[in-house]
Amino acid sequence: MFERLAEPYLVLDEHLVVVAANDAYRARFGAAHDLHRTDAQPHGAMRMQERDRLIHALVADAQRGGASVSPVFRFDVDPAFHGEPSERGHYWRMHASRLLAAHDEPTLFALRFEDVTTSVLAKQDADMAAPDTLAFALAQAGLGVWRIDFDREQVTCSERCVEHMGAERSAERIANEADTNTITPDRLLGENVAQFAARQRAAAGAEPFEMERLVTAPNENSARRWILVRGIGRFDHDGQLSAMTGFTLDITARKERELALDARADTERHARARSDALAATMDQFVTSVSHELRSPLNAIVTWAEVLQRAIAPADIARAADAIRRNGRQLSHMVDDLLDSGAITTGKLSVNRVPIDLGALAAAVAEDVRKQAEHKRIELRVGEMPSCFVMADESRMKQVVWNLLSNAVKFTDAGHIEIALRITGQHAELTVTDTGKGIDAAALPLVFERFRQIAPHSSGRIGGLGLGLWLVKHIVTLHGGTVHAFSTGAGQGSTFTVCIPRPA
């Protein structure tokens, strides 16, 4: 009866040694061999080894009692024993059961091979004829699906995912390759995603992650697209992160709208900041101008009244000198204000002609001497060699005047020295004082408009805060440079102007 059974059968002992094989088994698979031997494996040894490992698992289950059934597996028989195999393969399911035996008889197991090829192929045909509902839904939603397998160090992805991430190979080509859509993580998802996934693996992070990636598609004229990448870890029974799965979604339209709104918000924010800064500057300007213009005007009015009542020649001379000094100060303030507006609108121009910078600086120093003597400060005029430069005479006078006036303003005792020297193709004018000095952190700010740099304990010092700002712009218009130097508060300061000499 055993030999006449229609389905292939094996009988094994508890050591998995083949005790018997029926005619159907020999017809299908050839001679039966000891499952522990690998040197006598028939055609397709590697596939046979896979089948034999499944047999081991089935028999182990049967030893614990009852029958066991294997999952469906594919096993191509040797055509030498059973004609030509099907092009689509043969599919089997194995049934293992323990045979009844007396106490003194050895334990045996029956292994039946059920050919399920017809039902499996029929199901495959039906699946191929009907669309994959999930895949269809994902495609309609525009989602790409990916999976990182850490053990194999590979990424498997759908065609839409490849399209999203701008892979170097087209989806059609990948689909036809032997690697079945498998490429490395950093190549598909980008180094940032792959590195993040590696860190997640090291930390065994269970939280999902999400990031946005800017992708340049290789086959769309380098079109740039924003792709949303989301994923979550998959853990094995030991709690180790073995894989990560996720999806990709093209969010270019949404991201571009967000970026446009962000850019517009940044522009509006910067505009508001500029407007607020301009308003604050204007308030400061109005306050400063009102105070500074009122001071010399009040002095002129007061000394004019004194002059009106004065009888002694000394009082008349003193009043006239004060009126002249404050009138000149007021005139320079008005000039600075007008020049400030011209610089801001780009209308300040210079008329360059050959001038002797040494003679010009010495003459301006004499005009400022009265201011210095009024504060009991010594004004020293150092070496003033004859040095011709191409410059606007009135503008250069303004530069020297502002530097010297600034030195007088911030010096309470000691001296001020102005000197000129020739260094190669440049004329170098220096103004040094023993005044309040400048902190190192404040040096870059001294040439800003409406800025006064002085120790906090000294209080506000008269002036519009335009002098050094005008000096810098006028010197720049002449192709020169101006620098400030000080060793610190109370250590005095030095301003150096370099003007190019004609070749």
Automatic annotation (TrEMBL):
This is histidine kinase. Residues 288-503 form the Histidine kinase domain. Keywords: Kinase, Phosphoprotein, Transferase. Residues 209-263 form the PAC domain. One of its GO terms (molecular function) is kinase activity. InterPro entries: HATPase_C_sf, HATPase_dom, His_kinase_dom, HisK_dim/P_dom, HisK_dim/P_sf, PAS-assoc_C, PAS-like_dom_sf, Sig_transdc_His_kin-like_C. It catalyses: ATP + protein L-histidine = ADP + protein N-phospho-L-histidine. Its EC number is 2.7.13.3. It is an enzyme of class 2 (transferase). It holds the Pfam family HATPase_c.
